[in-house]
Amino acid sequence: MTGLPWDASYHEGPAPWDFGGPQPAVVRAAGRFTGTVLDAGCGSGENALHLASRGLSVLGVDVAETALETAREKNRERGLDAEFVTADALHLDRLRRRFDTVLDCGLFHAFDADERLAYVRSLEAVTKGTLYILCFSDGENAGPHPVEREALTKPFGAGWRVKTIEEERVRTRFHDENGAPAWFATIEREPPDE
User: Fold this and answer.
1) How far is residue 66's CA from residue 44's CA, in Å, rounded to a whole number?
2) Counting Cβ atoms within 10 Å, is residue 27 exposed (0-12), middle (13-18) or buried (19+)?
3) Fewer CB within 10 A of the end CB, N or C, for the chain?
4) What 3-state DSSP class applies to 11?
5) What are 96-154's pLDDT values in tens digits?
6) Cα–Cα distance, 55 to 49 (Å, whole number)
7) Membrane-spanning residues where (predicted)?
8) With contact defined as beta carbons under 8 Å apart, do 9 and 15 qualify?
């Protein structure tokens, strides 16, 4: 939405959302993650690596190659077995894989309304279980591109069930340690009618 390629966010040090660890909300929810995991928009990999350290099979995807190189290096240094590949979140079908759990941490709020519809269609191709979304909310002192609760649920129609939306916080390098107001949504993929 800034007009710059995502990779540019990583060229002069950490990106604004890269504070040096996994998001606390993801750490708290990690016990709910099962099976194979896709981290869509994984950035430099902290959330994916945290989940991999818990024994989960994790694929992190991003369009920012600089971030992915950082994630791969951390993966090697920590002796983990996560996988990181370049992929466009609007074309996840190109992965030709399906995942039990999908994480979107800080990606949903970067899309406009039309892109969110395309993104949900993309998620349909890869999600066979539960999708977790952590995004900026429209609360006080919100981060950039805040999302109203209705805007979070609206793109998820037939084939999805919004199970819960909880108030949370997103850590960034520009907020204090409490982070910015956020939503943490649990959205389930419904099996097709037989």
Assistant:
1) 8
2) middle
3) C
4) coil
5) 999 999 999 999 998 999 999 999 999 999 999 999 999 999 987 777 788 999 999 99
6) 10
7) none
8) yes
